[in-house]
Design a protein that fits this description.
alpha/beta; two-stranded parallel ribbon; twelve-stranded mixed beta sheet; 556 residues
Amino acid sequence: MNSDLEISKRASLLPIGQIGDKLNIKSEDLIPYGKSKAKIPLTYIDKKKYGNNNLILVSAISPTPAGEGKTTMSIGLTEALNKIGKKTTVVLREPSLGPVFGIKGGATGGGYSQVLPMEDINLHFTGDFSAIEKSNNLLAALIDNNIQNKKNSLGIDPRTVTWKRVMDMNDRSLRNLIVGLGGTTSGVPRETGFDITAASEIMAILCLAENFSDLKKRLGNIFVGFTYDKEPIYARDLKAHGAMAALLKDAIMPNLVQTMEGNPAIIHGGPFANIAQGTNSIIATKTGLSLSDYVVTEAGFGFDLGAEKFFDIKCVSGGLSPKAVVLVATVRALKYHGGVPVKDLQKENLEALDKGLANLEKHVENIGLFNILPVVAINKFTSDTDVEIEHIRTRCQELGVKVEVADVWAKGGDGAIELAKDVAATVEANNVKFTPMYDWSLPVEEKIDIIAKKIYGAKAIDYTSKAKANLRKIERLGLSNLPVCIAKTQKSLSDNPALLGRPKDFVVTVREIEIAAGAGFLVPITGDIMRMPGLPAFPASEKIDITDDGTIEGLF
């Protein structure tokens, strides 16, 4: 089987100006990064247009460790919608280098449903992640400098500082550190560490900001810690937000690239889906909706994580109203949720498949809670049998849900024509309005209760003493009206990764609640959430190389 990289090399890249022409972007307005990448100025966002065009979210059932192909499906669906005459742009997140060099790989789709140039996008791209890293670490340096500085000190208590440095690499040895060693001229010793860049609050801020003014305001609102007198300190108190925003002057603009079939693709931002909103920027989505009739986008992990945050945080914050949800399901994931070990997922097993369908049913129910119609897309793999696929189709029809098989990895847009027709019909027949799960003004505990019980299916929520103290701190700081971005495992609808399928009568335990005042949400933490991944025993980087003529090899 050909690799994604080998397939991508056979594609013909159009000059980026021709891609811009398809969106009616003047060539002189594009800011090129070589021949095949460019930045789109914020001036192309048009409220009249983006409010009237059609936003489609691609989500998924609870995934297997390898994921279920949301990005590949988003790209293939975009190709297919264009083939049936719908002017469509795919809008996606940028890949993080951590997974590229680790175990999961890049995030540019796969097979004949990719965005190009995949090597550039999966590596440095246009430097957005680097700018976010520098902006994050500038604030970290200013915090430590202020603690050290006696002439210009805010009196920050170093024990209360939660801000960490970031790096776009998997490196477990940096998770927990002591800085400031080396004597009185080298800083004040304190515990801290590194997160991966995608986990930075700066990433979440960039993806929720509407413009430079909003960006600076959000950066200034970053909560840093407390003084020795128990007074809160924000980034604006350190006069950090102006310089931090200056470092993001180019990163705030979305990136224009192309699909394998020569359609426009906008890629921008990449926040985590467990501790942040898990989707591309509001600016990128609105740019796509301003320039095309349809936008296909995706949110990380399953519907319970990425999609819930997409709706309740991103859409509410940005005034967006999606028209349909494509729920990606795979035979292998459904058998996994039916109790089949990963090593046996390629074997036909109708009993396990039937048991695992309870997971799909719950996600379908959850979509309906937002007053949106779902279309189920069965992402086809070579190991799937006709009997297994027909079993899924029958169950979806019993639920009254449209369902189509999509073979976008092998066939590109041609593999999703029927899916595209169903999605377009669902969008055009839409006469209901997206409804969020909760009002932001509700008490924090009530917001958590709504999500955990309605979306996850929990029986109750338990708060540790630390979480209860966090709630009191949030109340004192006047931040109770922020939405909640619950951090939990992606492997289960519950907060226990071992509970597969559709668990019931479980209790969600909130260990603590972090404040992301700049991004504009609170982060209730359930379970163990990893913000700085480690490398596997055999990292993907061992297979990546470059030839004498500059050709990348081994990527994917």
